[in-house]
Write a structure and sequence with these properties.
By secondary structure, the protein is an alpha/beta fold. It has eight helices and twelve strands. Strand 9, helix 8 and strand 10 form a beta-alpha-beta unit. It comes from Paenibacillus thalictri.
Amino acid sequence: MKKLKRSARLVEMTQYLLIRPHTLIPLTTFADRYNSAKSSISEDLAIIKEVFEAEGLGDLQTLAGAAGGVKFIPRVPKEASLRFVDGICRQLEQPERVLPGGYLYMSDIIGQPLVLNEVGKTFASAFAGKDIDCVITVETKGIPIAYATASYLNLPVVIVRRDNKVTEGSVVSINYVSGSNKRIQTMSLARRALKEESKVLIVDDFMRVGGTIHGMIDLLAEFKATVKGVGVFVESGEVEEHLVEDYISLAKLSGVDAKTRQVTVVPGNYFN
């Protein structure tokens, strides 16, 4: 790359870091890329670090030594996430979203790139300190959230299937009890999709009782995997007890009146 003016170099370096979260980048990479001295690159990184921290964009960690470099850790202040979630709660309280059985229609919200971006960034902030190998979800509505979260953690996504597919090869399947209707259902995971003893983060779009997530935990036990965290976009507060105890929720459906179509949604336990 040709030698850039400092202002242009700062912009390009910032973009380079933003699209490579949780990746250790040696200083020589920037020095060679911009044909600049390491001392100049270090000064630029100090400026970027100051702006990132001041604006609540994340941390820029510096690792010294021959194998050192810089690593960008995306973080969003909890206050900013709360403002975002408050807006989502107001959208979810719209009467026309009430579905039979007390469910809410959320597909249009989950389909918005800006919403997914904020949800992914919030989950990535909440679990940034965990040692995680991959993000796991069950098909289908949790998939966009899983990819949004994984993009900020720079991790692969593994999808648990409800039906066996020929293209998946050999699979491990288990039966589990659905928490909402108490029916026996099946979920499966390809043997090649997950290495044994992996450390995983489970994310999902909605949790009523937690039967599906509990089933995923049982399935992951077959791979000797360790669940390092569970994140749900919306949880139901209308159940006496969840099958999953240790989890983070961004929003909580605390009340639905099917007759009056009145819905109450509040921020989840992440903000407690």
